[in-house]
Amino acid sequence: RRFRYALLAFDLITVAFIVVTSFLPRTPLIEVLDAVFGLAILVDFSSRMWIARRPWHELTLPATWADIIAILSFLAPVVGEGAAFLRVMRTVRLLRTYHIAKQLRQDFKWFRRNEDIVLAAVNLFVFIFIMTAIVYETQHGVNPQIAHYADALYFTVTAVAPTGVGDITLPGTTGRMISVVIMILGVTLFLNL
After folding, report:
1. CA 84, CA 34: separation in Å to the nearest integer?
2. Cα angle 173-63-136, degrees, rounded to a multiple of 5
3. CA-CA distance, 145 to 154, in Å (whole number)?
4. What gap in Å lies between CA 49 and CA 36, rounded to an integer?
5. For residue 46, which phi and psi values (nearest 5 degrees)?
6. Residues 6 or more apart in contact with residue 48 via CB below 8 angstroms
7. Are 18 and 41 in contact (CB under 8 A)?
8. By C-alpha distance, which of 134, 136, 186 is closest to 160?
9. Which one of 169, 175, 182, 191 has the fewest beta carbons within 10 angstroms of its own beta carbon?
């Protein structure tokens, strides 16, 4: 039980690290911390693959590929932003924590009462976080309105919000299709919450 909660806490700390460092300039300390997180995730991933009854089946799961992408992006020698945006794939791991929902129900009365809200909030958070990374990576070099992650996050949240704002737009067909995906899926997840 403690081990499962420790893994959940590690996943949340990893996501917090990704969010915070996306707003900071790349420094040697951040690169060292990237490597530390990457190695820790690699150890976790390798252990899970080692004890899996059907390791080949594990490779068919989206969360497994999200972990592989996150490991590579944490451990890759990245200059500047580079492939660092792929670290957001680690947030998909939060969706894999549903298997501890049973444990949380047993241990916490508050979770039993609010399970639907908690799971809907996690889904919305992961969606917003991943779409923010996609907006940033596809737009920061071509769209002067998306200069950093905060701009991409702002656009994503306003596209999800039923009212929207419209002061930042994504030009071109790709930008419009990204906007459509954010609006349709985001509003659905928002209303679910």
Report:
1. 9
2. 35
3. 11
4. 20
5. -60, -40
6. 58
7. no
8. 186
9. 191
